[in-house]
C-alpha cells in the first residue's frame, strides 16, 4: 500500500501503461507459441515469462524514474548525449549484425544485446529540451539559438542512419516537431528539412558511384515495393500482414486464435499490430490507437500546466517520439508506409526497447508529479488565504 500511496503523476498515463502491458502479454504469448515450441523444446510459455519479466522491470523503472525530480534529468542530458556518440560509432564499427544491420551491441558477461539508438534517442530528447529551455531568449537567432540545438541532433541522426534510416528519420522529425513547439522559426526548420533531403540523395548517389551500398539497396527495394502497382510483388511479410488484417474483421477471431502468426515474420515485434487486428479486430486496433492518442493528449496537458520550460518540453517531446513511433508501426502494418524495423512501444516483444520506453514514460510522469505538487501547494495556499479572510485575519507583512 505504501508503494501505491507514493505513486504519483497522471493516473490516466499509468492506466495506459498497464493497459498496453496487458495487451503486450496477450499478443506476445499468442504470437510466439509455435516459435517457443520449436526453439525451446515445447516450452510454449518461455517468451511469455520473458516478456513478463521485461515488463515487470519496465514498471519498476517507471516507478523509480517518476520519483526523481525531473530537473535532475537536465543535468544528465549533456552526459547522455556525449556518451551516445562513441556508443553509436562503436555500434557501426563492431556492432552485432542482425538482418544485415549493425544496430546492436552485446554486453560481455551477461551476453545481452541492446540497441544503442534507444540510448541516443532518449539522450537527445533530454538534451534538446534542455537547450530549448535555456535559449528561449535567443531562439529566433540562427547562430545562437538554432545551431546549438540542431547540430547535436544532426550528429546523432547521421550516426544512426547507416544502420537504421527509419529510426534516424523518425528521430529527426520528432526533434523538428519539438523545435516547432519550442518557437524555433519555421524558416529554420524548412531549411533543415531541405538539407536532410539533399543529404539522403547525396548518400544514395555516393553509394551508387562507389559501390559501397551499405543498406541503400534495401531502402530502395522497400520504396519500390511500396510504390509498385503489382500486389503480387509485395514483400512476403506485407502479404501475410494483409491476410491477417483481412481475417480480423470487426471483432477479430479471439485471443490466441491467430492463424497468420505462424507465417508472418516478426509477428511478435515489427508486425505485432497485424496480429492484434487478426485476433481483436478493428475494435481492438482502435483501442490501441486511442491509447497512444490519449498518452499524447495527457502529455500536452502536462506541457500546458508545467510552469518551467524544461519540464514542459521534456514531457511533450518524449510523448511525441513515442506516439510517432507507434503510428509509424501501425501504418507499416496496415500498408500505409514502406516496411521499416520500427516496433510498437511497450507492446512489441523486446528488451532494451521496452526498458528505454519505460524510462521515457517515467520521466513524463516525473514532470506530471511535479506539476501536481505545485498545483496542490497553490490550492492549499488559496484555501488558507480564504480561511484567513473569512476570519478577518490579515496576512503578515
Polypeptide structure, described:
- This protein has 397 residues and is mainly α.
- It is 71% helix and 4% strand.
- Strands 1-2-3 form a three-stranded antiparallel sheet.
- A hairpin with a 2-residue loop joins β1 and β2.
- The longest helix is centred in the last third of the chain and has 39 residues.
- The two termini are 43 Å apart.
- Belongs to the SEDS family. FtsW subfamily.
- One of its GO terms (molecular function) is lipid-linked peptidoglycan transporter activity.
- This is Probable peptidoglycan glycosyltransferase FtsW.
- Mean pLDDT over all positions: 84
Portion in beta strands: under 5%
Number of helices: 14
Helical residue percent band: over 70%
Low-confidence stretches are none
The total of beta strands comes to 3
Radius of gyration in whole Å, from Cα?
A: 23 Å
- What is the terminal-to-terminal distance? 43 Å
* Biggest sheet statistics: 3 strands, antiparallel
Order of neighbouring strands in the sheet with most strands: 1-2-3
Order of helices and strands: HHHHHEEEHHHHHHHHH
Gross morphology: globular
The number of distinct structural domains comes to: 1
Structural classification: mainly alpha
Amino acid at each position: 500500500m505504501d508503494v501505491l500511496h507514493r505513486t504519483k503523476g497522471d493516473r490516466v498515463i499509468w492506466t495506459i501503461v498497464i493497459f498496453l502491458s496487458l495487451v503486450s502479454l496477450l499478443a506476445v504469448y499468442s504470437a510466439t507459441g509455435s516459435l517457443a515450441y520449436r526453439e525451446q523444446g515445447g516450452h510454449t510459455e518461455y517468451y511469455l515469462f520473458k516478456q513478463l519479466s521485461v515488463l515487470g522491470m519496465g514498471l519498476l523503472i517507471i516507478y523509480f524514474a517518476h520519483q526523481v525530480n525531473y530537473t535532475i534529468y537536465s543535468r544528465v542530458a549533456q552526459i547522455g548525449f556525449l556518451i551516445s556518440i562513441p556508443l553509436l560509432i562503436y555500434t557501426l564499427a563492431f556492432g552485432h549484425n542482425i538482418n544485415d544491420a549493425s544496430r546492436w551491441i552485446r554486453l560481455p558477461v551477461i551476453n545481452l544485446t541492446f540497441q544503442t539508438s534507444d540510448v541516443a534517442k532518449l539522450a537527445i530528447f533530454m538534451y534538446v529540451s534542455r537547450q530549448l529551455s535555456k535559449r528561449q531568449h535567443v531562439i529566433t537567432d540562427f547562430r545562437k539559438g538554432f545551431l546549438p540545438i540542431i547540430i547535436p541532433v544532426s550528429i546523432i541522426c547521421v550516426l544512426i542512419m547507416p544502420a537504421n534510416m527509419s529510426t534516424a528519420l523518425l528521430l529527426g522529425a520528432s526533434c523538428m516537431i519539438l523545435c516547432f513547439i519550442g518557437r524555433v522559426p519555421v524558416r529554420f526548420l524548412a531549411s533543415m528539412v531541405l538539407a536532410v533531403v539533399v543529404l539522403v540523395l547525396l548518400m544514395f548517389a555516393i553509394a551508387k558511384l562507389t559501390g559501397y551500398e551499405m543498406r541503400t539497396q534495401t531502402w530502395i527495394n522497400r520504396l519500390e515495393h511500396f510504390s509498385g502497382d503489382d500486389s503480387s510483388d509485395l514483400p512476403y511479410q506485407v502479404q501475410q500482414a494483409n491476410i491477417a488484417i483481412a481475417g480480423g474483421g470487426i471483432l477479430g477471431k479471439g485471443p490466441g486464435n491467430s492463424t497468420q502468426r505462424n507465417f508472418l515474420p516478426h509477428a511478435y515485434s515489427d508486425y505485432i499490430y497485424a496480429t492484434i487486428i487478426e485476433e481483436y479486430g478493428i475494435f481492438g486496433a482502435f483501442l490501441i490507437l486511442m491509447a497512444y492518442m490519449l498518452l499524447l493528449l495527457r502529455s500536452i496537458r502536462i506541457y500546458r500546466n508545467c510552469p518551467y520550460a524544461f519540464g514542459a518540453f521534456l514531457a511533450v517531446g518524449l510523448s511525441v517520439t513515442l506516439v510517432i513511433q507507434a503510428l509509424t508501426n501501425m501504418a507499416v502494418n496496415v500498408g500505409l508506409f514502406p516496411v521499416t524495423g520500427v516496433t510498437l512501444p511497450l507492446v512489441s516483444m523486446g528488451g532494451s526497447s521496452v526498458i528505454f520506453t519505460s524510462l521515457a514514460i517515467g520521466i513524463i510522469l516525473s514532470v506530471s508529479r511535479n506539476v501536481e505538487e505545485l498545483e496542490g501547494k497553490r490550492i492549499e495556499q488559496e484555501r488558507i488565504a480564504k480561511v484567513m479572510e473569512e476570519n478577518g485575519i490579515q496576512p503578515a507583512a
